């Protein structure tokens, strides 16, 4: 039986290239392509894939939050992060969210195939360049007993924070999240209070610094 896959990346050419390569393997089937994390959550709910290949930095809902939501709904799905970022922040947040693998976009396609097979066997897969980052982060946390600032926020608050940082209006955020504008404002006040940040500009800088969104989104 083939491994069922969803591709989540905000660059169409990347999705098409991956799809073309993956579909040459008779053991793998691409069910869908999506351009953001929210689409990944919706398609994973609808299609029940074995694996989601997830870009980390995407507009609307980033890969970290999308991974959390996908796995909250179906813990059997395996998520592989495929990113251009090797920074400790991105790697550690994806792994904390439940991703089973992390590869860089400059890896060979054969490595991605191996990662897919590995995670479907219930094992984790990290590219060699990422393994060192994970060990470094672990030692850093041990030495400083450090907790990520994003742990302070709830899942919904992190969603709202990303959308605010991307310049979306209260009305549009409310529509996207199926909540009232008043609830969005309440979330924004709570986010600012928890982070001790008092302007939207500072919230935006914070979201970029913490990897919740990126300048190129």
Descriptive tags:
217 residues, Arc Repressor Mutant, subunit A, 13% strand, 10 helices, alpha/beta, Rossmann fold, six-stranded parallel beta sheet, 2 domains
Shape call: globular
**How helical, in percent, are the residues?**
40-55%
Alpha carbon gyration radius: 17 Å
Which structural category do the helix and sheet elements fall into? alpha/beta
In the residues, how many domains can be counted?
Answer: 2
Mean pLDDT: 89
Number of separate strands? 6
Q: How much strand? A: 5-15%
The largest β sheet comes out as: 6 strands, parallel
CATH topology of the largest domain: Rossmann fold
Count up the helices: 10
**Side-by-side strand order of the widest sheet:** 2-1-3-4-5-6
Low-confidence parts, pLDDT < 50 over ≥5 residues?
Answer: none
What's the end-to-end separation, in Å? 37 Å
Q: Could you say what the CATH architecture of the largest domain is?
A: 3-Layer(aba) Sandwich
SSE order and pairing:
Elements: E1 3-8, H1 12-22, E2 28-34, H2 37-47, E3 51-54, H3 63-73, E4 78-83, H4 88-97, E5 101-104, H5 109-120, E6 125-126, H6 128-144, H7 155-165, H8 170-177, H9 181-195, H10 200-209
């Amino acid at each position: 039986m083939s491994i069922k896959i969803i591709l989540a990346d905000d660059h169409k050419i990347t999705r098409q290239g991956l799809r073309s390569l993956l579909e040459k393997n008779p053991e793998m089937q691409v069910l869908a392509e999506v351009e953001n994390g929210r689409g990944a959550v919706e398609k994973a709910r609808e299609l029940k894939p074995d694996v989601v290949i997830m870009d980390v930095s995407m507009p609307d809902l980033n890969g970290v939050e999308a991974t959390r939501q996908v796995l909250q709904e179906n813990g059997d799905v395996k998520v592989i992060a495929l990113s251009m970022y090797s920074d400790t922040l991105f790697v550690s947040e994806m792994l904390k969210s439940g991703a089973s693998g992390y590869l860089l976009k400059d890896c060979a396609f054969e490595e991605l195939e191996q990662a897919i097979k590995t995670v479907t066997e219930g094992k984790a897969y990290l590219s060699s360049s990422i393994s060192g980052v994970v060990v470094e982060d672990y030692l850093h946390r041990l030495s400083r007993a450090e907790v990520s600032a994003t742990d302070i926020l709830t899942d919904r608050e992190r969603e709202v924070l990303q959308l605010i940082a991307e310049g979306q209006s209260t009305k549009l955020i409310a529509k996207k999240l199926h909540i009232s504008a008043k609830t969005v404002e309440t979330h924004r006040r709570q986010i600012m209070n928890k982070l001790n940040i008092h302007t939207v500009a500072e919230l935006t800088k914070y979201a970029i610094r913490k990897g919740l969104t990126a300048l190129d989104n």
